[in-house]
Amino acid sequence: MVEYDRHSQREEPNKPALRTCIVGIGGAGSNVLDRITLDRTVEAHLVCMHTDIRVLGHAMAPVKIQLGAELMRGIGAGGDPDLGREAAMFSREEIRQAIEGHDIVFICAGLGGGTGSGAAPVIAEIAKASNALVFVTATMPFSFEGRRRLNQAEEALNQLQKRADALILFENNRMGELILPKDGIQKAFAQADQLIAQSLRAVSTIVSTPGLVKLGLDDLTSALSTSNGRCLFGFGEARGQNRGAEALKRALKSPLIDQGRLLHQTKTLLVHIAGGETLTLMEVDAVMKQLGRHVPDHTHILFGVAVDARLGDAISVTLISSLGLSQLNTIAAAAPPANMLPMTDRPMPSLADAVAATPVAAAPAPVAASAIATPAPTPRSRAPRQAPAPAPAAIEPQPAPAPAPARAAAPLTRDDSMDLLFKDDEIISLTPQEPEAPAQSVEDEPELFPEAPAAVSQFTEPPVQQEYEEEEYYEEEEPSVSHSSFLPESEIEPEPLAPEPAPAPAPARLRIEDFMTPAPAPAPQPQAVAPAPVQQPRPATSPLAAVVARTNLPPEDLAYAPPANTVVAKKPTNQEQIDLGFSDQDRGRFKDTEPALASGGEDLDVPTWMRLKRKLKR
Ligand SMILES: Nc1nc2c(ncn2[C@@H]2O[C@H](COP(=O)(O)OP(=O)(O)OP(=O)(O)O)[C@@H](O)[C@H]2O)c(=O)[nH]1
């Protein structure tokens, strides 16, 4: 018998690690990025982008980009996605510089406001143009935030689906299930931020950490692939005696998989188990057997195990899958009790089987950041990882579900389906030949600023050691899941449809058309230029939590191209870091918008750290 050497380095030593970048956009994106920065669990280039200089000034990410500095003058987009989009276009060069050179770009934003909804699709497109694999995690607004925000969020979602390789959508309404109704709104946001941060961490770990049984980008995109569906995500981590069972229990309790109910219908399920050096075969076997009670026999299991020294004595279980909207609606209509499928005792692929079957048995070397040797995102055959157990009771080989297109795993190429936003030499050559649809809904906008575009600023700070004065405020204990909604809508005053921020009377506002490539000019369309946004059908009863959109980029809206010379990236200087010195009473970027109030009168739009009245000390 050959002894397995846990420390052997089987991966090619000189293989470059996947370079990962996480971009947080707007207030929500910035909050999630703060969470990730504090946790220090994801090894990635963290970039915060916002129009609002005050929020940006307090963000913890080491790299910050002020979007549309001259256009926005450091003020938030005030809930106007068109402003957010224009701001991103002005800053496209800095965005490109921050993103380029990365293999995977995660984009994180709260949809419904101005900056996140408007800028995220632009940034996704820049990321795609740099050949990165683009993952988007976004939140949908609480229902009590009002119809206007929801509409804006759906419009942004529609645009993001066309540009992202995979999109995981978190519905803030669902996040309420993570906490008790009596808990404050800030706790709901905090829990939501934590779950989103966990999903980013899980996905980046899966694709970048060498594993005993390796899962790759192709597995991930296969699990996420469905033409028009929603992603199911569950994550649990536990320590102690029954840590495997407990971690699985927590993963199954995720509201994003509807307490495990949605796994009944899934065709492909990605399961990733990670633990420290003490992870045992028995524990992995136990988790897989237990999971077998929750998924049907025909489910195609993509199974990965990794030993990651950073986890210490913890075990984490990640479940990722997807369901078509029709299936989701069926499930929602005929919802069985939350109990899982009856126990079938169907054996799941064991670790030993999987190890024996996998040709990619990467060494579970103690993970030091620099020691992670990760494979390039090339398409790999999934067949050997089906772990056909020699025992007759092992999982049946399943007919492979629609495999992930090779393109999803391979470095992305610029194809002619790419929407083209920018008049940039390297991008413009990809302009689709067919006539572009007119830019949406911006032509009739009031003009705000007469000035010509000027330089936008970017300032890059070294990581600042900032600490909250108080202790960790995310509670460790298992959240209650006994409440199906966070706040009944009836208890919330409907959000008045507040007027948009009053446009300044200045006559020469910069418009998207000013940046458009002159030809081919679509025929002018009188009045009918604002096509009704294509809205995602939403499940009637169960607002489930995640959406996957495989990239299928039809050339259409957002066809604008700012001149390449309008933006001059400034060298970072200390002077550009503005001392904001605002008080807790100041609504900052929200001052021109209607407050989104919870019943207690709290302003939901205020960032988490502000709502919690945390002070930062340097
Ligand atoms: N989960 C979560 N959602 C948030 C948080 N903050 C805001 N949101 C949601 O994200 C939506 C957009 O809010 P922001 O991100 O603050 O808005 P923005 O994109 O910065 O846009 P402007 O403020 O208009 O410039 C809100 O309607 C909320 O539903 C947060 O901390 N966590």
Question: How would you describe this protein?
Answer:
- The chain is α/β, with parallel strands linked by helices and 618 residues long.
- It is 26% helix and 13% strand.
- It is built from 17 helices and 13 strands.
- Strands 6-5-4-1-2-3-11 form a seven-stranded mixed sheet, with helices on both faces.
- β2, α2 (53-58) and β3 form a beta-alpha-beta unit.
- α1 crosses α9 (185-208), α6 (115-129) packs parallel to α7 (147-163) and α11 (243-252) runs parallel beside α12.
- The site of guanosine-5'-triphosphate has 28 residues, from α1, α6 and α9.
CATH fold field value of the domain at 18-208 and 412-438 and 544-553: Rossmann fold
Question: In sequence order, what are the helices and strands, one letter per element?
Answer: EHEHEHHHEHEHEHHHEHEHEEHHHHEEHE
Low-confidence stretches: 1-13, 335-585
Write out the strand line-up for the largest beta sheet, numbering strands in chain order: 6-5-4-1-2-3-11
Specify the number of helices: 17
Which strand-content bin applies to the residues?
5-15%
Query: What structural class do you assign from the helix and strand content?
Result: alpha/beta
Please identify which CATH superfamily of the domain at 18-208 and 412-438 and 544-553 we are dealing with.
Tubulin/FtsZ, GTPase domain
Arithmetic mean pLDDT: 62
Radius of gyration over C-alpha positions, nearest whole angstrom? 24 Å
Distance between the termini: 56 Å
According to CATH, what is the class of the domain at 18-208 and 412-438 and 544-553? Answer: Alpha Beta
Envelope shape? globular
> Which sheet architecture does the biggest sheet show?
7 strands, mixed
The appropriate CATH architecture of the domain at 18-208 and 412-438 and 544-553 is: 3-Layer(aba) Sandwich
Ligands, deduplicated: guanosine-5'-triphosphate
How many E-type strands?
13
The share of residues in helices is 25-40%
